[in-house]
Structure to design on (201 residues):
């Protein structure tokens, strides 16, 4: 899907699709796409998802559609309460984690407050990882001793979401930091782990 189609798709699926103004990116505004809210009454029963959660390395190359991307990112790091807290707990509620989605049309940062994605890098970087349709990157401060626990909660939620939607996924340590020198990570942050997600081949 090219940039224009992606933006159009975003406009179609989002209840209130918009390009959020004023977000600085490399001296200009960055493209932001609102995501559809996940259906929190849908999906398979939790116990079925737990029973079906597994690694599948037979990952397709097609982009994950935007509604599914919205569900996956919400499962990883969405806000699930009016007090601004998340689906994943963090030590002392410090919330020091970030999720990036590596897609065919660029690398996007998840904005949980807006439930939106903002492009931080142009171009298809998926071959830097394993070429799967979607690669999620989980980042946190290098010195945070809780970071591994936080990102582990996130990839497990996504793994369960994949089980619910029939997507293949694989958590990968190898090549996880392939984009760290290009991502607009806060100072002292790093990518701890990646997770490839796609329709099974
Ligand atoms: C922290 C972590 C790092 C992993 N790194 C890799 C990796 O670099 N490459 C890979 O192919 N699989 C990787 N895996 C997937 C594991 O090999 C897989 O989860 C394990 O074989 C158990 O299989 P299951 O997920 O189906 O239970 C990783 C899994 C975890 C939890």
């Amino acid at each position: 899907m090219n940039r224009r189609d992606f933006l159009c798709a975003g406009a179609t699926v989002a209840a209130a699709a918009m390009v959020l103004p004023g977000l600085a990116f490399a001296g200009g505004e960055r493209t932001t796409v609102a995501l559809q809210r996940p259906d929190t009454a849908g999906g398979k029963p939790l116990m079925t998802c737990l029973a079906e959660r597994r690694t599948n390395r037979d990952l397709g190359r097609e982009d994950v559609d935007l509604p599914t991307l919205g569900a996956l990112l919400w499962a990883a790091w969405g806000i699930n309460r009016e007090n601004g807290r998340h689906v994943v707990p963090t030590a002392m509620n410090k919330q020091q984690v970030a999720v990036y989605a590596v897609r065919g049309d660029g690398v996007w940062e998840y904005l949980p407050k807006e439930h939106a994605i903002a492009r931080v890098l142009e171009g298809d970087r998926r071959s830097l990882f394993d070429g799967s349709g979607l690669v999620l990157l989980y980042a946190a401060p290098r010195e945070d001793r809780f970071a591994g626990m936080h990102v582990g909660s996130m990839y497990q939620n996504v793994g369960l979401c994949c089980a619910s939607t029939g997507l293949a996924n694989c958590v990968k340590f190898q090549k996880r930091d392939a984009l760290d020198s290009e991502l607009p990570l806060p100072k002292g942050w790093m990518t701890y782990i990646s997770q490839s997600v796609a329709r099974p081949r």
In short: Strands lie at 24-25, 28-29, 32-34, 98-103, 106-111, 116-121, 134-141, 168-172, 189-198. The pocket of flavin mononucleotide is lined by residues 54-55, 57, 170-174, 193 (CB under 6 Å). The CA atoms of residues 63 and 133 lie 4 Å apart. The two ends are 19 Å apart (CA to CA).
